[in-house]
Every structure is written in C-alpha cells, then in structure tokens.
Amino acid sequence: MSSTSSSKRIAVAGVGSLGLPVVLALLEAGHAVTILTRSASTKKEGIPAGANVEYAAVDYTSVESLKKALEGHYGVVSTLTTTSVGAQAPLIEASVQAGVSRFIPSEFGSDTTNPKAKALPVYGAKIATQEKIEEVAAKNPGWSYTAVINGAFFDWGVKFGFLGVDLKKHTATLYNGGDRRFSTTTLAGVAKAVVGIFSHPEETKNREIRVHETVITQKKIIDIAKRLDPAEWTYKAADTEELKNQSFEVLKSGKVEEIPGAMINFLASAIWGEGYGSEFVETENDLLGVPLLDEAEVEKVIAQYI
C-alpha cells in the first residue's frame, strides 16, 4: 500500500490502557486495524466489531508467526507493556520481512534521548529497542520508524496515583518540592499523535517526535483537586536524587523484591529530576494534530478521578 494513501491497514500489538485508544483513533481516522493477540479467542472489550477490525493470534517470540500476521500492512504500532517492551525484536524483524513501511515502537513516555534519562536502568529495554530500530532502518530503506515521546500519561497517572498524587486518599508525595514542571499527555492525546504520524509519514520518518497536551506541576494538580473537593491533604517530601542513589544500591544488593520500587524511583527521577528533559521545549503538536488542553480541559481530566 502506498505511503500516500489516506487509509492504511495498521497492526496494533498490546491492546491495553494505551492500545485501546490507539485502535479507536485509527478506526475513527478511517484506517483498517489488525489487533495482534496471544490467543485466537481473544476479543478486546470496547472495540467495535466491523469490517475494519481483524484479530490475528500470534506468537510474539516467533518471527515467522508475526511475519504471517503482518503481511499486507502499512504500519505496526507496538503498545506492549513495560514488562514486554524488551521483547520487540521479533516484531521488528517480522515487520521488515513482511514489507511493513512504518513501525512505531513502545516508547511512549519520558525523553529517553536525554543523556541523564538514558542512563537510568529502568529504560534499558527501550534504549536497546532504539538501537535496534536505528540499525534496521539504516539497512532497510523501505522500512522506517517513529518513536513517540509524550511524557507521563496524564489521565492514567492521575487515576492510578502514578503522578505522586492520590486524589481519593488526599495524600501526595511531593518530589523535589512539588513545583517541578513536566510535560504530560492523555492516552487519547497519544492516540491522536499516532494517527498524525500515519498522516505525515515523510515528516516523521526515522526520528523521535515529542508531543504534550499540557505542562503541569504536582502542586497544580493538588490545587485543582482542592477546588473541586475541599479536603485536608497529607504530604510527604521526597528528593529524586536521593531516591535514585538508593535505587542503584538496591540493584547492587540484588534484592529482587525491592527492584520494582527502585524502578519506580528511577521513573520519578526522569519526571521530576533536574536536567532530565521532562518539560518539552519543542513539540510536534501542530504537525500531528494534537491540541493543547486549556485550563477547563485540564480540570476536567482531574475531576473525573476525584
């Protein structure tokens, strides 16, 4: 299928919290979507049945299985979760062999091109994937990639307390004072960016693109929450540099049970630490059709989880 075609068949791997809005946005834009699943009986809740949706059961460890499923597709979007993000090599290789034109890896987060963020162990699998796709693109001119850097997920982060703020319990861990500005994007905003990439293949070819819907602080989230739900809040302070150093010690100690907490602390460094590039200076919002949220829309995101 020509890259100039307005409607393309796209395969989506990993239809979870992010994958679902990506699929819906692609369908709304007129694309046909193949959902890659581990089981032939799997049907994803929330995805309408119709001629533009197909399911393909695959073995994510088998290039041959993936290649068969990807034949005839223009693009692949990987929204595989953190635990699977390091296992994208067979999917990448299969996409090349199947003649796919554009691959979007499961990047979707902090700016891992930033040298300080790049050095954090939590991003090891993503860095390895970046190196892989750059190498593959250099050897295969008909194949290309776009990596989406969107900061923390705004709505998902607020809902699950990932941004250090628990709206239900009225508690917060304020990292480095709670005034650090960081870029953030809703899941639907990320999905818009993905659609925009397929609408602008040449402008987005073989590079990272940055988008955000708002730049915010922890304290601003809390201020909005207090306006909507007056309550007493409880705070504790945290220093990301201290947490990062403690987390490196955890990795050295080999205490397996403490590693998940250490990884969360590394993520906190990337979002609220000094010099990690978490507030984007330049973005591709206009190119990809991702508008900024106004104050009322930011409040609406927070309000739905109070």
From TrEMBL:
<dbReference type="Pfam" id="PF05368">
    <property type="entry name" value="NmrA"/>
</dbReference>
<dbReference type="GO" id="GO:0016491">
    <property type="term" value="F:oxidoreductase activity"/>
</dbReference>
<keyword id="KW-0521">NADP</keyword>
<keyword id="KW-0560">Oxidoreductase</keyword>
<protein>
    <recommendedName>
        <fullName>NmrA-like domain-containing protein</fullName>
    </recommendedName>
</protein>
<dbReference type="InterPro" id="IPR045312">
    <property type="entry name" value="PCBER-like"/>
</dbReference>
<feature type="domain" description="NmrA-like">
    <location>
        <begin position="7"/>
        <end position="246"/>
    </location>
</feature>
<dbReference type="InterPro" id="IPR036291">
    <property type="entry name" value="NAD(P)-bd_dom_sf"/>
</dbReference>
<dbReference type="InterPro" id="IPR051609">
    <property type="entry name" value="NmrA/Isoflavone_reductase-like"/>
</dbReference>
<dbReference type="InterPro" id="IPR008030">
    <property type="entry name" value="NmrA-like"/>
</dbReference>
